[in-house]
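Handout, page 2. Input:
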Amino acid sequence: MTTQANWLINIWHTLAFTNGQMITQANWLINIWHTLAFTKGQMTTQANWLITSGTLRPSQTVK
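Output:
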């Protein structure tokens, strides 16, 4: 997961939570990034931290 990818994911999440909504396109992009990360068999420490801290929760990304 590149730094740029993490940055894009964080931007999408920030915008979505600020607006109180998650658009289908944003969900799709986030899912693609996650799929790529897991497919490559690696997840950066930053991404793991976000998930374990509860920042990235399925209940929040699926509106």
